[in-house]
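My hope is that you will study the record closing this message with an eye to the fold:
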Amino acid sequence: MSSRVIKENQKLVLSLYRRCLRSALQCPKFSNREMMLKYTRSKFGDNKEYNVKDFDTVELLLKQGEEELTSMNQYHQMRELKKKGEEPDHDKIFGVDH
């Protein structure tokens, strides 16, 4: 079972990595784009040392990565709305329910 879980986690990590790189590439300024690409590569590189059989840590790191990706994408959404001259609905973008 553990080899199947390890392979599934590897797919999830690779998918998250690709989505983070794509999100970083959406930064309009070259310097911001390069900074976000370096940050993404650094974060994933730093976490290469974890034991792939430490499922709790892998799950935690995936969750943290998804949260950071969500934040990056929320920034992109707000920037696009402002670019169009629209006022961003912060509650909708950040998923706030009233």
